Amino acid sequence: MHETRPLQVHYLKAACSSCSVLELCLPIGMTGAEVERLDTLIVQRFKVKKGAALYRTGDPLRSLYAVRIGSFKTCVVSVDGREQVTGFHIPGEMLGLDAISADEHACTAFALEDSEVCPIHFAQLEKLAQTLPSLQHNLNRLLSREIVRDHSMLMLMGNMNSDERLAAFLLNLSQRFSIRGYSSKEFVLKMRRDEIGSYLGLRLETICRGIAHLRDQGLVEIAGRDVKIQDMEGLKQMVAGCHRQPR
Amino acid sequence: MHETRPLQVHYLKAACSSCSVLELCLPIGMTGAEVERLDTLIVQRFKVKKGAALYRTGDPLRSLYAVRIGSFKTCVVSVDGREQVTGFHIPGEMLGLDAISADEHACTAFALEDSEVCPIHFAQLEKLAQTLPSLQHNLNRLLSREIVRDHSMLMLMGNMNSDERLAAFLLNLSQRFSIRGYSSKEFVLKMRRDEIGSYLGLRLETICRGIAHLRDQGLVEIAGRDVKIQDMEGLKQMVAGCHRQPR
DNA sequence: CTCGGGACTTGATTTACATCAAGTGTCACC
DNA sequence: GGTGACACTTGATGTAAATCAAGTCCCGAG
């Protein structure tokens, strides 16, 4: 769908620059020559089958990964096997940032569909960053952005009711698709209801009911995993007054 | 109380190395000479009165801050003025990491008591990091550690009931005090019940009841803001099987 | 085509926590 | 030394979401 055989060839040529340069956001403000040096790090790409783990909690940090095609969920797994989803990742986004902390991955990344990633060898990236100040700066920003994102998730978990959380989730996905050049109004959820639930701190039945509520209000049209946003403003309003009890 | 006039002089001499070196964790693995260069960044310290804001959402990022004395809460404030606490910070911990993302602070930091911080000019820090690889690496780790911490908060908000959250909160504080050389068994909560509640996604009444429950089980003794942990293992067990319904 | 299983939906009931309410304790300030 | 404000506690009641329980839908394998 995104991809046909003939396109593959084009990708192989464009892989490095399009993957690292345009989508990763690492190279903002870097010169062409600098970007070329960054691209030398990205020597390969590889595929991850649907359901397979790209890395697991405790794996040593070798590379960060840029999602190239497909999508991933990251989750923390507790002792007895139950999991908390900490994030979803679409093409152009980076995986593995939490591993820098202790030189080993702090969560497990599963492919939600057949996917493809660019590994970015971390030690080499750090080395290169020493000579490319703008690369270093961009890495710092990437890490910091993740922190900001997590804080807004905490806000969501602490202050929003179930319908508001769902609305916020859909809006967030919509924006991210938009940034990457996909439609912000129509997209496909690659994850199951229970995975959305885990991410939002809700049960899957509550997600279903939330979807029904948003549909009843004419805000979205969701059939299975196909999403159409019908009233973007309405959704935004719903999230704006983001309190458990709006009085 | 913490501070008398004569001590000031001593602090001025010792401020740089004790503040930046031992507590910040930035200089792990750096040589003495490198650490000295780092210390040149830390040219001053200043006081923040209880209740005052060290920085506010939207303020341009000039410095990161190392807490030297006292404590802070950071919160995201929503449009209509209600706040979500995103973290508490004790001496030796760093404030402002989320500002790197967009060159402006993404939350507001309030002093919970009369406090003191070391500002670390961020542009200079980045510049220095270019010539000190180990400093750069430590900054990366610091940022990544914050991400890991946030993920475990998300796990807590998604999977734990109120008593478990409170236990996890107390254990976390205990560990951090321990790392900084304070007692892990006895400490004082500098924040109000409603601030703990906001942080944990609960109401203040629920915090009170949680405290009563932990007390009834003989795990802790909490009188007002004075905490004594009586059964560390018991607390840990409580958090270990961290599910909403332990079956 | 049809059978089986997994994903999803919807209704009934339960429950953990929020909310409302009425206190007590404590400390700063007049 | 009294009093007012604020932090905290505890009880009664309400409610949003969890849990339990049937389903339906859809797709892929046989």
Description:
- The structure is a homodimer of 247-residue chains.
- The termini of chain A are far apart.
- In chain A, helix 1 (5-23) packs across helix 2.
- By secondary structure, chain A is of the alpha+beta class.
- Chain A has helices at 5-23, 32-39, 122-131, 133-159, 162-179, 193-200, 204-216, 232-240, and strands at 46-48, 53-55, 63-69, 72-77, 83-89, 94-95, 108-111, 115-121, 186-188, 220-223, 226-229.
- Mean pLDDT of chain A is 84; it is low at 1-23.
- Chain A folds into two domains: 11-155, Jelly Rolls; 161-239, Arc Repressor Mutant, subunit A, CATH 1.10.10.
- In chain A, a hairpin with a 5-residue loop joins strand 4 and strand 5 (83-89).
- At the A-B interface, helix 3, helix 4 and helix 6 of A face helix 3, helix 4 and helix 6 of B.
- Chain B binds a DNA duplex (30 and 30 nucleotides) through residues 161-162, 192-194, 202-209, 211-212, 224-225, 244-245.
